Amino acid sequence: MDYFPARAFSYILSVLFVWLVCMPRARGEIHHLSIENDKRSLIILEQFGFTSAGHLDLEVRNVVWSNPDEFPLPDDHLQYIGFFLATEDDWLQANRQIEQKSVGCVLQSPAIHLLFTFSRLNGTNPFQYNNTYPVGRPDRYLVMFSNCLGFSVSMSVRTCMYNMEGNTRDYLSEGKTQLPYLYFCFFWVYMVLAGIWTHVCVKQKATVHRIHILMGILVALKALYMFSEGEDMFYTKKTGTPHGWDVAFYAFSFLKGVMLFVVIVLIGTGWSFLKPYLQGKEKKVLMIVIPLQVLANIATVVIGETGFSDKNWLTWTQLLLLVDVICCCAVLFPIVWSIKHLREAARTDGKAARNLAKLTLFRQYYIVVVSYIYFTRIVVFALQIVTSYHYTWISELARELATLAFYVFTGYKFRPIPHNPYFMLDEEEEEAAVDEMLKDDEFEL
């Protein structure tokens, strides 16, 4: 009897391993989920990388179900509703079996690791069940609930996943257990950078502009962001929950994200060190970026707190990626406008060499911004897909190293100094610059 629609499996497969593997982690590895009158055929509860000493504690309480369509059912129908574990390979094999109609429900597939079905519930209604399952085969697993009958199900689910290290529980997924120490290291790196930047600004206070103050604030926010994420992961590793550090993480994530895009836009426009004001179109870019960052932060909170089981998880994920792409594209336009403005100014004010130096600086910055966006969005994404789950921390290390390099480059190139070598040019360089400006006449986004 084919209880499970194959179309549902095809839909899940189309998004599952593109998004699930690469999504930000949920804030803690002990999860409480409330399901109310849910008829979904498949609910993805959690994802976790287990070692050979991994365990899953599963507790289900207040289980109530009903058959709203009142279809006739066999006596053993409750075996078609239950929980299971599956690796990527297990899931693909189970899906092939369903498409080939060798099994009618994923819970019947020998490929998956069946935890329990509703046929094992005992006692009076509402029912409950709890058990601890050792995971002997190390791999990255999905914890899923399957409802092949289309029943309306309500229940409270608690999952607790951990790996044993001697007598100690590690609640972080294999491959992520190194992340707290990684984030703390970067916290100290950014603290040192903030100290260096403060020293430079104090020493060169005569040439400090407002943009330099904002750049210092950005570095400080990045340091606090790294600290809060490190504390979040540290407490999750030890206890399974972040103990409130997720609130600090979301707050500093929002402030850091907004400040980063604002600083890139303002540097791209040349605000405060090339001109004291913003033009109308440049203000519009900021008016677009800031609300989008607010929306992105809301999406991040929803994704992190609700997890994969939420009905709107995929929608929020797509919204987050769309907002990020729009913001990344929007910040490039002010840089291009500045480049075109400098090229046009060189032809009219008789200062070709000085404008060529500025033009060179802004072109370099444009290339670096594009490279930073490409690496942190595309290359890191590819690393997350191709790297084994044992080495998830490598993609995070690559992301943070690229971010650090971007911060250092930006700070060095736009640092407050009284005699900028870009703008100290003689007459011969002036003539050479005129020729260069004539040869290099186009710059496209």
From TrEMBL:
UniProt xrefs under Pfam families: CAND6-7_N, GOST_TM
Question: Where can this protein be found?
Answer: Membrane
**Boundaries of every GOST seven transmembrane domain copy:** 180-420
Presence of keyword Membrane? yes
- Domain of life (superkingdom): Eukaryota
- The principal location of this protein is membrane
What UniProt keywords are attached to this protein's entry? Membrane, Signal, Transmembrane, Transmembrane helix
**Residue ranges annotated for the CAND6/7 N-terminal domain, each copy included:** 32-163
Transmembrane portions of the chain:
6-23, 141-161, 181-202, 211-228, 248-273, 285-304, 316-337, 365-385
Q: Name one GO cellular component term.
A: membrane
Bilayer topology term: Multi-pass membrane protein
Q: What is this protein called?
A: Protein GPR107
